[in-house]
Amino acid sequence: MTACDHPGALLATGATALVYELDDRRVLRRYKDADLSAVPVATSTEIAWAAGVPTPRVLSAHGPDLVLERVDGPTMLAEMTAGQLAMDEAMQILARLHRRTHQVTAMPQEQELPRLPGGDRLLHLDLHPNNVLMAPDGPQLIDWENASWGPPGLDVAVTAVILACYALAYRTEDDALDATDLLDAFLPIAEPLTHLPEAVAFRRGRVDFMPAAEAAQLDNAAGLVRYLADRAPQ
């Protein structure tokens, strides 16, 4: 019997996995679907960590279970919602994490991650405020389930679509996260945004793992991103 057989307190609930406390140094990320393997996400996380991208270190992976180094700290979204992190600063952090991730280049023989047309850089493809932990030593990027090699502009476009969907879906509930304010803060400081149709198609393929309110905004989000990207200062 291992510690994973009887994990501790539930720390977080994601679209596909649950995160449990193991002890003061480790957490368990367990897929909700026990038939899924944690090895692919362990591999992508290890690639990012080895390249110096700020992310928790992988300790082990077996079946649906991934054991990670514990990183304490609220999510960026929680910090923003609580008024502890300014929107402009949060968007600067997202842009910096993108740039750091995109510095990682695939080797010609690299076969461990999917390859998307148009580039050979490491892409996260789910970089948003709920996947950034505001740790004492600096922001940590988590959840590398969608990681691929490809063009950086696609990663930027996916983040823009996620931000727009979130803000449009909940704008009446939380005026502090206004749709245009989020994107107006992000787009001028981000890397060039390309592959917007592909980003929308990618997110459409993930609707089963998205809240219905956000999934319903995909088409509106694409139009908002396109409009704001066209007017963003160059």
Summarize the structure in words.
With 234 residues, the protein is α+β, with helices and mostly antiparallel strands. The chain has two domains: 3-69, Phosphorylase Kinase, domain 1 (2-Layer Sandwich); 76-231, Orthogonal Bundle (Transferase(Phosphotransferase), domain 1), CATH 1.10.510. The protein is built from eight helices and nine strands. The chain has helices spanning 39-50, 76-81, 87-102, 152-170, 179-186, 196-204, 212-215, 218-231, and strands at 10-13, 17-21, 26-31, 58-62, 65-69, 121-123, 132-135, 138-141, 148-150. Strands 1-2-3-5-4 form a five-stranded antiparallel sheet, with helices on one face. Helix 3 packs across helix 5, helix 4 (152-170) crosses helix 8 (218-231) and helix 6 packs antiparallel against helix 8. The longest helix has 19 residues, at 152-170. 42% of the residues are buried.
